[in-house]
Design a protein that fits this description.
This protein is an alpha+beta fold. It is built from ten helices and ten strands.
Length: about 280
Amino acid sequence: MITNAYINRAIDYILNHINENISVDEIASHCNFSRYYFSRMFKAETGESVYEFIKRVKMEQSAFRLKVEKRRSITDISCDYGYSSSNYSSAFKQHHHLSPMEFRRSITQISLTNPLFNKAAVGLESFEKCTQKISIEVLEDYPVIYERHKGSYGNLSVHWGAFQEKHKEHITELTLFLERTYDDPSITDIDECLYDICMTAPEGCQLKNTYVIKGGKFAIYHFKGFVKQIYTAYQSLFNVWLPQSSCEIDHRYGFEIYRKIDNGSMYMEIDLCIPIK
């Protein structure tokens, strides 16, 4: 768990400005620390230097754009993250061991292996089947209590149990449980994924570990199934539905809303909320 409030503030700043040429000095100043002290603190908390984290996020989020925005040119996407075409190709290949073009050609096939469950095979849904499960909605803002983790999504159930026990006095029949996942595990190393587990904060909540998940326009995939099938649903969204739909994903981060969970069978009903323009 990433518990340091200043480091979480820095991560939020990086994620919200990842398409800009942000510097370590700028982020340290945002958190009111010297570059040297802040850099040491960031590395101790996350296991990465600030520079390494910024570069990795740029490489992985731009790769995600290559995956879901197939009609956009590689040059346009590289510019979104502050790279010239030649510099981007070099940095991308160093990180992913494929050129951007090779990555774009192979990512659907790469996505057909589920890294969370013993590399199980994945059968993508058709565009038509996805469309039957998707609604376009405008969601409200959600003030939430949260905890941030870096690691495998496979550890979520353990973290959720501890989180709910810790905050049980704030849970009512109206509480919603949400999850914010920042990475696609077909792109990001499974042990480097960043995610927030959240619950709606009651009015007047005085806890410090709170923020607001911004609402707006979303494509919402209404998932009904078992935990092992969630990866398939996401990959169908990313590889099939988004590239073929008329919807454009925007630069907000998506999240999930848990509607129903059977802890015995692990049957779940979850809204997978993908931000669109």
